[in-house]
């Protein structure tokens, strides 16, 4: 008999979201689990919001949380790290006898992805535009502020939601969606932190022609790896960063929280690039 054997003692972890079939978290985490020799398995669970209250009874050891449940994840926690307490959004849960511990690894994961893909960005970025107002947008804005970005512009179709992000992130100000092109012109760093363009879904006609020639353009979406926003930016000759790095680095931090083991992020990049190439 060969291969992994799952028993009643095997720890179960999951990524929770809707939609979730596109997620690359299961192959990434299962590869890390195998490399570390940990008796655990990681799956994707498409769940609705009303299920969250019952999560502690599922028997999960830990979970990643993605769109649209990050705020619900923060709400069910009995323990919260500083970022979750401030942002009201969690992307990592750890279940135990003392309750549910919630963490936000999106913020440091995003910053780590920029450090890896665009060395020296901290010296070049004074103003950043964050598009979106969900859990990922809050974490990205928080992470950029913590990294020392002087000014953050937050634009969302629902302005009240943008105001909520600004209320918890230092040096952040809302920007009207109707004047998004002006924000593109002002920003040294442009980040799409929405699900627009995810898995071939709808994407707006981004005003990329307004962006400054030195602007760095980032999309938190990683499937497809080249989103409409990144394709438009590259056509203009702008520097770009895809969303795969954020997925990998936030996942690596989650793995450390659950198991105290630092996984191989380079190996994960190779595996996920291969999977994405297969379509």
| Main pleated-sheet profile | 6 strands, mixed
Q: Remind me, CATH topology of the largest domain? A: Rossmann fold
Output the strand order for the largest sheet.
2-1-3-5-6-4
Low-confidence stretches: none
Structural class: alpha/beta
> CATH homologous superfamily of the largest domain?
NAD(P)-binding Rossmann-like Domain
Order of helices and strands: EHEEHEHEEHHEHEHEHEEHEHH
Per DSSP, the total helix count is: 11
Percent of residues in helical segments?
25-40%
Rounded average pLDDT: 95
**How does CATH name the architecture of the largest domain?**
3-Layer(aba) Sandwich
Distance between the termini: 31 Å
Walk me through the structure.
By secondary structure, this protein is α/β, with parallel strands linked by helices. The protein has two domains: 11-104 and 246-278, Leucine Dehydrogenase, chain A, domain 1 (Rossmann fold, 3-Layer(aba) Sandwich); 107-242, NAD(P)-binding Rossmann-like Domain (Rossmann fold), CATH 3.40.50.720. It has eleven helices and twelve strands. It has helices at residues 25-36, 70-76, 82-87, 106-117, 121-124, 135-146, 159-168, 180-186, 228-235, 244-259, 265-278, and strands at 11-17, 40-46, 62-65, 79-80, 92-96, 99-103, 127-131, 151-155, 172-174, 189-192, 216-219, 239-241. The strands form two sheets. The chain has a six-stranded mixed beta sheet with strand order 2-1-3-5-6-4, with helices on both faces. It has a six-stranded parallel beta sheet with strand order 9-8-7-10-11-12, sandwiched between helices. Strand 7 (127-131), helix 6 and strand 8 form a beta-alpha-beta unit. The model has no long low-confidence stretch (mean pLDDT 95).
């Amino acid at each position: 008999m060969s291969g992994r054997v799952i028993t009643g003692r095997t720890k179960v972890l999951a990524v929770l979201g809707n939609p979730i079939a596109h997620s690359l978290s299961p192959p990434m985490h299962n590869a890390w689990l195998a490399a570390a020799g940990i008796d655990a398995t990681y799956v994707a669970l498409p769940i609705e919001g009303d299920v969250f209250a019952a999560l502690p009874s599922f028997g999960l050891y830990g979970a990643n949380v993605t769109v649209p449940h990050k705020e619900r994840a923060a709400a069910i926690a009995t323990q919260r790290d500083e970022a979750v307490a401030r942002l009201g959004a969690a992307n990592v849960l750890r279940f135990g006898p003392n309750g549910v511990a919630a963490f936000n690894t999106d913020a440091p994961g995003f910053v780590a992805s920029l450090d890896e893909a665009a060395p020296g960005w901290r010296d070049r970025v004074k103003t950043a535009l964050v598009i979106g107002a969900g859990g990922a947008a809050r974490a990205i804005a928080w992470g950029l502020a913590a990294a020392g970005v002087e000014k953050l512009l937050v634009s969302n179709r629902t302005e009240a939601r943008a105001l909520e992000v600004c209320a918890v992130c230092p040096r952040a100000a809302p920007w009207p969606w109707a004047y998004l092109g002006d924000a593109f012109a002002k920003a040294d760093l442009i980040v799409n932190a929405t699900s627009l363009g995810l898995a071939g879904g709808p994407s707006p006609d981004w005003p990329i022609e307004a962006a400054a020639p030195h602007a760095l353009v980032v999309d938190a979406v990683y499937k497809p790896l080249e989103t409409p926003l990144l394709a438009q930016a590259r056509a203009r000759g702008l520097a770009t960063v895809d969303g795969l790095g954020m997925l990998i680095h936030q996942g690596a931090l989650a793995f450390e929280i659950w198991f105290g083991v630092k996984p191989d992020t380079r190996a994960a990049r190779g595996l996920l690039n291969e999977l994405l190439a297969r379509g």
